Fold this sequence. Notes:
Layout lengths: L5 E5 L5 H15 L5 E6 L2 E5 L4 H14 L7 E6 L2 E3 L3 H12 L8 E8 L6 H11 L3 E2 L6 E7 L4 E6 L5 E2 L4
Parallel strand pairs: 6-7, 6-8
Antiparallel strand pairs: 1-3, 1-4, 2-3, 4-10, 5-9, 8-9
Helix pairs in contact: 3-4
Amino acid sequence: xxxxxxxxxxxxxxxxxxxxxxxxxxxxxxxxxxxxxxxxxxxxxxxxxxxxxxxxxxxxxxxxxxxxxxxxxxxxxxxxxxxxxxxxxxxxxxxxxxxxxxxxxxxxxxxxxxxxxxxxxxxxxxxxxxxxxxxxxxxxxxxxxxxxxxxxxxxxxxxxxxxxxxxxxxx
Length: 171
């Protein structure tokens, strides 16, 4: 599969097949009949869609608002902008090259690290990334959030705005 541009978290009680079916149904409804899904680990599906990932999440939110029962297997949809190798060096390099310049001195930012299957040191990573960013650290009220999803064989990185994630938990 080419690199995924969405992570979809699902309810383990519903199971992978129900979640995959829900993802495919939604993406087909939105106009993508060729999406690819891959199980990254229990509870998380990597999705490659030809659609813009943030637009998909906006549409998922609209679908849920108009019919809450239509989304019952998937719990959270997160865009992924970049993938890199699971090393601190590659993560720092990706953030420096692709994301750091998108955060201005006026921006408040947070660094969110989700360790799924990784031995990397979360605090060290956050500190090294914070050194690259011009804005003001603010984990309570950020304008932008650098989200890093650490998996065993690869790392997903994205710069999130306030409404870029859809979550049934309201995160």
